[in-house]
Amino acid sequence: MRTEVSFAPLPEIATELLAVLAVDMQPEKGAGAKPGPTLLTDDSAVQAAAAVALASGEYKAGVNETVLIHRPEGLAARRLLIVGLGKQGKVSLQSVRNAAGTAIRFAKPRGIKELALVLPWSQILPAAGAARSAAEGAFIGDFDPDTYRSDRKDQSVRSFTLAARDGVDRAAVEAAFAEGVIVGESQNFARLLVNEPGNKLTPTILGQRTAEMAQKVGLECEVHSTEKLHELKMGAFWSVSQGSAESPALIVLRYMPEGVTDGPVLGLVGKGITFDAGGISIKPADNMEKMKYDMAGGAAMIAAMRAIALLKPRVRVIAIVCAAENMPSGTAQKPGDVQTAMSGKTIEIINTDAEGRLVLADGLTYARLLGATHLIDAATLTGAISVALGKVTGGVFSNDDATYAKFESALQVSGEKFWRLPLGEEYADLIKSDIGDIKNTGGRWGGAIIAAEFLHHFAEDTPWIHLDIAGIAWVEDARPFIAKGPSGVAVRSILEWVRSY
Ligand code: BES
Ligand code: MN
Ligand code: ZN
Question: Which residues sit with their C-beta closer than 6 Å to ligand 1?
């Protein structure tokens, strides 16, 4: 998708579709302004063209509610689309992100290939933030997962213009918009990877795709396999891959900005299970096909590194993705097996389907060995996190309040929803093993917390954040602003967390 910022007067913008945002205004008593749907532009031609629709009472400017006006009088645009942000008091940059996505997803099935979105009034929304959010939302909206349909029509929008007006800081708006393009494209890169089925994206292929991306954006990339796992004594990671005919991939990305020789080294660790059949503790057939998205945490890290390489924060970052298939076979590990992790800890395998924590255990240890001073991991780790938080909010865990505080601030910018859950000795007690140091499952209750406590054994006292995205990595039902399929969640939050250092 081509993108640009235009400062031309709105009536002169010749485009297939001009989209303008509206809020449901609820002025305080005596404040003068009229209640009801109100456009977030002071352009009188646009207001005149929209006046009849707004006065009709049919349109309430509800969240992502749209109304289309053909051949709007006085405008060079062929269509005018009004996109609602909902009640004025509840409007945020997330509303702008979603509205931009809604405009794009309105255009796509109608064969509309170019559109311009009017930057909303800066009295209500900060101009730079809105510009960035609009770009992100446009890319997010443009993504569709129909890669392998032979009747696939390429309905992607060719050109997206942000129409900004006088009175804004042009350089700031342009820079923020360019940033949003990078972030949106990166989030879609994660979604592209997550969308691939297991046969098209094996651990080896994930390594290749990552290396190609790294080459393009100038990141150092190494992809190792079985031999390196043995050399590093990654017994936990290897134990997951041993049941599959596909070789594991240990993917390492490094971002080392010139001149930065001290300060923190951030370690990003992602679960990259390209298919999770459960191993010998095999999963039921229902919904097993979904387990191709069990590499969404790894994809989030790879995509965040893409954005980092392009946005160039002044901090060193290493990413490690532990990619493997979890399969049942004659060579697969068995319940009762004891594995020695890279850290030296012994793990009793109770359930081979609790494999994510095994690969991450060695990933976290390796990140620390490579010098990471702060860790963040992302994983589709447990079904239990969806029981706790539904398909709406991700789980976040941390052993360090200061590090968590930075993540919480990052959420303000990313607009993503995560909720902190506790760690605690009482949970850790549940994974003590009789035969070894720890076991890989700890009973039915608090499953997401127990999984986090398992990882805690390997993060140890290094400041660490764990994101359980099992409930939110896949959009189950299409929304006006995003297709059903991979969400690309966590890319934006991880990026902002990194940029806060
Ligand atoms: N990949 C799954 C978790 C998952 C479930 C992700 C649903 C996305 C949607 C993970 O490897 C797993 O199987 N976890 C088990 C752990 C259990 C055996 C302790 C689970 O959640 O059932
Ligand atoms: Mn599993
Ligand atoms: Zn899994």
Answer: 276, 294, 351, 353-356, 380, 382-384, 441, 447, 470
